Amino acid sequence: MAHTNSTTNYALPQFLPTDKPAWLTDINGAFATIDTAVDAAKDAADAAQGDATQALTDAGNAATAASTADAKGAGACASIADTFDPTTVYDVGAMVMYNSLFYKCTVAVTTPGAWTGSANWARLTVEDLVGGLAGNNIPYVPGDPRTIWDFVESIKLDLSTLFKTASFTSAPLTVNANGALNVTAANMNIAHPAGYTPVGIINIYSNSNDVVFKNFDVRASGGSSFGIVRNVGNSAATFTASVVILYAKSTYIA
């Protein structure tokens, strides 16, 4: 008999002392199976390297967008009021910025010290700021970026809302053995949050070890292509895919 037993995963020949190997069927077949498995592993490694490179690029773009937005916000806020200084005294009517919010002094601060909150300060709304700066005699013209109103509106963003993440999970999907599946944003149940622009994929994964992801694009929406799923296994795979996307406030994305 050529070989009595076979390995569990790839059915490679395993011999007993009484077996007589048949080179053309036993050994040639085994090498062909090994060659196919090694090639599939190489493809999976290449795909993983491509995904890692894209993730680094997306992360770099997100960091650049964050730095630009932070610089815009800091510069605009500094042009209206200085940051609260615990070593300074303040007269009634003085304006400061504290924890990214604007305040007006209502009771004079005669002794330098830590922030005293409502005992000396009243928080200013956008309307308060517009009224306080109206002495420049710049009229309110909606949509005109030269007016005080639109200037203040452009910098009133709470920096804690600059970024957000959202997670999405697909319904069960099936991909054939050693096959590929074009996945759409609709398959992934993706609905980008209003007012935010996707800037990168933080993580993407599935519940199947045989599934790898290639060429995923976070800008996709609706029925447009989101990416390709490849099955490196020897049988069809039914799986769910999950993705975590990083978003930036659209107002600060060029």
Question: How would you describe this structure to a colleague?
Answer:
The protein has 254 residues and is an alpha+beta fold. It has two domains: 44-68 and 162-252, no CATH class; 80-159, Seminal Fluid Protein  PDC-109 (Domain B) (Ribbon). Helix content is 28%, strand content 26%. The protein contains three helices and 14 strands. A four-stranded mixed sheet has the order 3-4-5-6, with no helix packed on it. A three-stranded antiparallel sheet has the order 7-14-10. A hairpin with a 6-residue loop joins strand 1 and strand 2. Helix 2 (126-133) packs antiparallel against helix 3. The longest helix has 56 residues, at 23-78. The N and C termini lie far apart (72 Å). Mean pLDDT is 74; it is low at 132-140.
SSE layout:
Elements: E1 5-6, E2 13-14, H1 23-78, E3 82-83, E4 95-98, E5 101-105, E6 121-123, H2 126-133, H3 148-155, E7 163-169, E8 173-175, E9 180-184, E10 196-206, E11 211-214, E12 225-231, E13 237-239, E14 241-249
Total count of strands: 14
**Helix/strand order:** EEHEEEEHHEEEEEEEE
Number of helices: 3
Percentage of β-strand residues: 25-35%
Which sheet architecture does the biggest sheet show? 4 strands, mixed
Could you list the spans in which at least 5 consecutive residues all have pLDDT below 50?
A: 132-140
Q: Output the strand order for the largest sheet.
A: 3-4-5-6
Chain-averaged pLDDT: 74
Count of all domains:
2
This entry's quaternary arrangement is single chain
Which value, in Å, is the CA radius of gyration? 31 Å
Distance between the termini: 72 Å
Helix content: 25-40%
Note the overall shape: rod-shaped
Helix-strand makeup class: alpha+beta
